[in-house]
Design brief:
Chain lengths: 674, 102
């Protein structure tokens, strides 16, 4: 069957949506919200349909990749830069996730943002984001990858700072942008090095062109022969690429922007900061797997940072009190899992976890949005509680998402998380296996336990027990004013209602996907792994990632047990006993609550010295040196002219006398001259 | 017949010039100052003609005519300025006209 490559439409439609929604409003045309909704959602819906068609025809064809070049942008000597879109297994999967989850969140937003004055701005930015993300995942060369990479950063900046009237949102947007630019810079350096080494930026493959990643015409993975294993150059390139991934995917030590990014609207957190943009790093490592395989040292860095981040973020998530921040740390932690899988060479497992995580984390964020929406903008879980009766649908959907992320069999999260854990176990117990695999396995298990705990702490504190807050005043999320609440007699939740259907339907679809979404990645029928295998180079075969003998069942059992133990712990602390939400004196608790003081550390080590240097430069260079020099010159000129001003008396006869004196002096000069 | 030496003419010229200078410097009426300037110019003309005659050169004659032309033009412009100053200020005392004082 022929591949029906419609990627260009998938790219074009969100761009059109962005332009139409934005320009209609900016040109002064009155547009009502309904029209904006139809244009915004319609563009993404069509994009999703075209992505689905492209994907299905790709699955059913013998071709591995379809690469369409649209435009030769730069042709200068040996430098050829083309704009082309590549459709292969990896970009196909990413396109489906981006447009699919994107569509659901567009629909959900129609309910969530309906009374926001910036509705049109919201939809145009959201469409712009989808455009940038599609460009990122389907570009066929590193230059346009970088363009997409930077544009999603811009979209993220615009949407985090969507409520720009709030200083906290504006600051969070700036922080996200600055941290992301650090990553962009790393990626840019990597691309420079790649160009020096290869003289091209194309991925290569299907059009028979030999590129960086793929050498044969079939577009299947082929390790670049240009490098020896662990060549210093390839290690530098891969580590610089990974710097970009670390910033974009909020891994240690550049994770600081993601929790603050929760200042944006909740659907944005669901789409950009949970399901799609932050997974761009995971995508990029998988995309450049051919390079990473030539640099095992870099892969260990990826695995190490992934594992460390997974555990680190999970511990912080245990004690946070902001419903969205808990989910943000959970996202960081799950992204750590994905890098962990990729770091040990199982890229397919990383991408698999990326897809299932997109389902259940978007679902969790949407549920959190429904709770926030119902409570008039409240985000502090200490002021919630007992919402199960009031928000039954949200409760059950949240529970599905929670069970999925905790890795309870047979939900999607179980299959993808256990795919990662069993990979680590299989590599660890294999003959001659590295002990570090088992260490990482332990880290993964511990994180699984913590995941179960923090997500169910959230569920129990928000939905069980008694309500602890005041009467919520219905307000859009942007203008929450907690002081406006008044305690009235009677039920403070009398006016709290379930989310409208336009919000619930996308949540139901995602809940369905969260339940069954693992079916295409089980160890017995690893459809996704087989599909991705030709694109993802690996130094292992897929079979090596599955523990042999009874070990697979041991891995399953231990993984589920860890999740259940976490849930049980949360139940013990927050349901069985009266939940204590007061801060504890425990130093470990303080450490987690203050997020390891990383923000403070950066403040002291980086921000303060830089700001101090700036102040000093402002005073010395700008003030004393430049301004002082300028002022000194002006002073000199002023003083001199005061002296000369006396000559300009304004009396004509004075001037005539000066003429005369001058003439006489000249005359005397000629007379006295020998 | 002119004398053999130009000394007399030059002394007259120098005296006239000095009178003109003193007139410009001491009088406050711009009309008198103009007259004094004319005196200075004509003193110069006298020495030009003297030298032209004794050196047997035509340059002096030509310069004299140039000086006369310039003097006429200068008087036209100068008198026009004086008239318009007088119209706006009803006073043409040069010491009062010191608005260009630095």
């Amino acid at each position: 069957m022929q591949v029906f490559d419609l990627t260009w439409l998938v790219l074009l439609l969100p761009l059109l949506g962005f332009l139409i929604v934005g320009s209609l409003r900016l040109s002064g045309w009155y547009t009502n919200n309904e029209m904006i909704t139809w244009i915004g959602c319609g563009a993404i819906a069509l994009a999703f349909i075209f992505a689905l068609i492209s994907y299905l025809t790709l699955v059913n064809s013998a071709t591995q990749a379809s690469d369409s070049v649209f435009w030769r942008w730069v042709q200068s000597g040996s430098l050829h830069i083309t704009f082309g879109l590549r459709l292969d297994a990896l970009s196909g999967v990413m396109l489906l996730v981006v447009t699919g989850v994107g569509l659901l969140i567009h629909i959900y937003s129609a309910g969530y943002m309906h009374d926001d004055p910036g509705y049109w701005r919201y939809y145009s930015f959201l469409n712009f984001f989808i455009f940038a993300m599609v460009l990122l995942v389907s570009a066929d060369n590193f230059l346009f990858l970088l363009v997409g990479w930077a544009l999603v950063g811009l979209a993220s900046y615009l949407l985090i700072g969507f409520w720009y009237q709030r200083p906290s949102a504006a600051n969070a947007a700036k922080k996200a942008f600055v941290v992301n630019v650090i990553g962009d810079f790393g990626l840019m350096l990597a691309i420079f090095l790649l160009f020096i080494k290869f003289g091209t930026l194309a991925y290569g493959g299907s059009s028979g062109v030999s590129g960086i990643l793929f050498t044969d015409a079939g577009g299947t993975a082929a390790a670049p022969a240009a490098f020896a294993l662990n060549d210093p150059m390839i290690i530098a390139i891969t580590l610089l690429i990974f710097v970009g991934c670390v910033a974009k995917s909020a891994q240690l030590p550049l994770h600081v922007w993601l929790p603050d990014a929760m200042e944006g609207p909740t659907p944005v957190s669901a789409l950009i900061h949970a399901a799609t943009m932050v997974t761009a790093g995971v995508y990029l490592v998988a995309r450049t797997s051919n390079l990473f395989n030539q640099a095992p040292a870099s892969l260990w860095v990826v695995a190490g940072i992934g594992g460390a981040t997974a555990l680190f973020a999970a511990t912080i998530g245990l004690v946070q009190n902001d419903i969205k921040r808990i989910l943000a740390y959970s996202t960081i932690s799950q992204l750590g899992y994905m890098f962990l899988a990729e770091g040990v060479g199982n890229y397919a497992a990383g991408i698999f976890h990326l897809t299932t995580h997109a389902y259940f984390k978007a679902l969790l964020f949407m549920c959190a949005g429904a709770v926030i929406h119902a409570l008039g903008g409240e985000q502090d879980i200490r002021k919630m509680g007992g919402l199960r009766q009031k928000l039954p649908w949200t409760y059950w959907l949240f529970l599905v998402g929670g069970l999925a992320i905790a890795g309870i069999v047979p939900l999607s999260g179980f299959w993808s998380k256990d795919g990662i854990l069993s990979t680590l176990l299989a590599l660890g117990i294999a003959p001659g296996g590295n002990l570090w695999y088992l260490v990482l396995y332990g880290v993964g298990l511990l994180t699984a336990l913590l995941t179960g705990f923090y997500i169910f702490r959230l569920i129990f504190v928000v939905f069980h027990g008694a309500y602890r807050g005041g009467e919520p005043v219905p307000q859009p999320e942007g203008q929450v004013d907690t002081r406006a609440r008044q305690r009235r007699r009677g039920d403070p939740l009398a006016r709290v209602h379930e989310a409208p259907w336009i919000m619930l339907v996308p949540m139901l679809i995602l809940a369905f996907l969260s339940v069954v979404g693992g079916a295409y990645g089980t160890p017995w029928a690893d459809v996704l792994g087989q599909f991705l295998a030709p694109v993802l180079g690996s130094s292992f075969s897929l079979e090596q990632f599955i523990p042999q003998g009874g070990w697979l069942w041991v891995s399953f059992g231990v993984g589920v047990a860890a999740g259940l133990l976490g849930i049980l712990g949360a139940w013990w602390m927050y349901v069985r006993r009266v939940p204590s939400l007061k801060p504890m004196k425990n130093p470990l608790y303080q450490l987690f609550l203050h997020k390891y003081w990383v923000d403070e550390l950066y403040d002291w080590v980086l921000v303060k010295p830089i700001v101090g240097t700036g102040r000093l430069a402002n005073r010395v260079v700008e003030g004393s040196l430049l301004d002082g020099g300028g002022r000194g010159l002006a002073w000199l000129v002023g003083k001199t002219s005061v002296g000369f001003r006396a000559v300009q008396s304004g009396y004509v006869r004075n001037y005539a006398l000066i003429f005369l004196v001058g003439a006489v002096l000249i005359l005397l000069y000629y007379i006295a001259r020998p | 017949m002119p004398p053999d030496q130009p000394t007399g003419y030059l002394i007259v010229s120098a005296v006239l010039f000095t009178i003109g200078v003193m007139g410009v410097l001491t009088r406050r009426n711009p009309l008198i100052q103009f007259m004094s300037i004319e005196l200075m110019l004509n003193a110069v003309n006298l020495s030009f003609i003297t030298f032209a005659h004794y050196l047997d050169s035509v340059d002096g004659w030509i310069f004299t005519f140039l000086v006369l032309t310039v003097a006429a033009a200068e008087v036209v412009v100068g008198l026009a300025i004086i008239v318009s100053i007088f119209r706006s200020r009803h006073n043409i005392d040069v010491d009062e006209l010191n608005s260009m004082k630095g």
